[in-house]
Amino acid sequence: MKIIYTVNEMQTIAKQLQGKQIGFVPTMGFLHEGHLSLARKAREENDIVVMSIFVNPLQFGPNEDFDQYPRNEKRDIELAELVGVDYLFYPTEGQMYPRKLSLQMEMTDRVHVLCGASRPGHFDGVITVVTKLFHIVQPTAAYFGLKDAQQVAVIQALISDLNFPIKLKAIATIREEDGLAMSSRNKYLSDKERTNAVELIKSLRMAQQQILSGKKNVDEIQSDIIDYLQKHCHGKIDYVQLWEYPSLQPATITTEQLVIAVAVKYEQARLIDNIILDWQGNVIEDVQF
Ligand code: AMP
User: Fold this and answer.
1) Can you say how many angstroms the Cα of residue 137 is from the centroid of all Cα atoms in its chain?
2) In what order do the strands lie in the sheet with 87-89?
3) Predicted local confidence at residue 37, as pLDDT
4) What is the CA(152)–ligand 1 centre distance, in A?
5) CB 13 within 8 A of CB 38
6) Which of 160, 180, 215, 239 could covalently link to 176 via disulfide, CB atoms 3.0 to 4.6 Å apart?
7) What is residue 256's DSSP assignment?
8) 267 band by pLDDT with thresholds 50, 70 and 90
9) Distance from the CA of 220 to the center of ligand 1, in angstroms?
10) Which residues neighbour 18 within 8 Å (Cβ) at sequence distance 6 or greater?
């Protein structure tokens, strides 16, 4: 595996690789099985795998955890190598943003709800960095996790609106044994919070049970999840929402893919989770865009 620290070198390599299938896995590092599952899938499906590690300041709000975001370069390099990454693009902030940008990208659709509403500007930062990374790496396919379902919806719109010749690959959420979605931020949970955090997925599975038994009233499902979390979850509820996926428009009876998503704030970490279902209550493995 080659580690690349500059934009210039990455662009030179991307040029040399033209004509090959290049699978790209953008991350913010502190790798766990979720990231590695994306890389493994990319390894299976492409000639070349490029992973990037860059904690993008643009997607953090002024009071968010940019400075505290966990980092472990040595371990990340070992893990990336282990799963067969060919090129690890590891730029500094100075490489990605050598001066203040002279333009502003703004996402106007699919961001009025969920994390887009809770974290104003977050997805503008995401589309800016992803656009830059797509230009630098020039992949033929890009791998994103459905753990961040809204991010996948936003990237799908970005690829389509800006005609990137890139196939979007949405990969299922990898979970701990008890069901907690893996996340770099889980490290900041106290032992008590870690035990309690399983309630996020339990609340979603309860909602799935309701849909399986025929419930189709969005408001009732939402308020039942809130009731459940208020009873069982020690964190502060940020949101509980149900939308059509990936449009993130209100779900109706004709909606084919529903996303049910929750966000909860513990003392040092804000956790998100979601499930994507049809109205029969079946989990959709192969999400359609
Ligand atoms: P991050 O480093 O948090 O920006 O995540 C990088 C990529 O890994 C994103 O596409 C995430 O959606 C994906 N990812 C993060 N956690 C998981 C998980 N538990 N399962 C699958 N993919 C994940």
Assistant:
1) 19
2) 2-4, 87-89, 48-53, 22-27, 141-145, 167-171
3) 98
4) 10
5) no
6) 180
7) S
8) very high
9) 30
10) 138
Cβ-in-10-Å burial (0-12, 13-18, 19+) of 229 comes to buried
DSSP output for 135-164: HHH--SEEEEEGGGHHHHHHHHHHHHHTT-
How many residues are given for the chain? 289
Return d(Cα 84, Cα 104) in angstroms, integer.
35
Q: Choose the catalytic residue: 32, 35, 122, 232.
A: 35
Q: Give the whole-angstrom CA distance, residue 83 versus residue 232.
A: 37
Q: Which residues make Cβ contacts (< 8 Å) with residue 133, sequence separation at least 6? A: 24, 26, 52, 54, 89
**Is 135 among the catalytic positions?**
no
CA of 250 to the centre of ligand 1 (A): 26
pTM above 0.85, yes or no: yes
**Cα–Cα nearest to 81, from 171, 184, 2:** 2
What is the DSSP secondary-structure string of 56-67? Answer: -GGGS-TTSSTT
Token pair 């979603």: residue: 204
Burial class (CB in 10 A: 0-12, 13-18, 19+), 130: buried
